[in-house]
Amino acid sequence: MVDLESIRSRTVTASEYIQSLGDSDKQGFLDVYEDYQLDMGAVEALRVFAKDITVVVISASWCKDCRNALPVFAHLEEKVGLDVRVFGAVKTAPLDPKHKWAIPPSPPEIEEWKATAIPWIEIFDKQGRRIGTIIEKPTVTGSIEEELLHVLNEHKHRAKKPEPRRKS
User: Fold this and answer.
1) What is the mean pLDDT of the segment spanning 66-80?
2) Could you tell me which of 45, 86, 134, 157 has the fewest CB atoms within 10 Å of its CB?
3) Report field, pTM of the whole predicted structure over 0.85
């Protein structure tokens, strides 16, 4: 379980993250934002979950997959009120054979969550329990919003699965 209040105090929303970037980096994110068309079926289905989850993204402005994912999360913040929190300024540690990431400026969560690539997207319930993880880009579906919905539906299915009966 994670302390979501602590995370909120050290992060920004997806929209704030994009706006905080330097001009050249920001433009790349804004171009994706302006061109991206959300899957409205997935968006409508996400409305059911939005108030009960927090999405935490570990990102960097130099990362192409982050440039593709963060604008989608900015749209989801606006369209469904999704609570998205972003740790930015991730740096690698190329000269440290024991660590992939430089901490700081990368957040300590990057090692705690054993992140191997970015964006590292963690989905939590409101109590801070991990629901699922998306690493880099969708692997089961064609878009971030569909992948998020897939993770949430899988979690819901697992949560409703009845316990096997024990033989007496």
Assistant:
1) 97
2) 157
3) yes
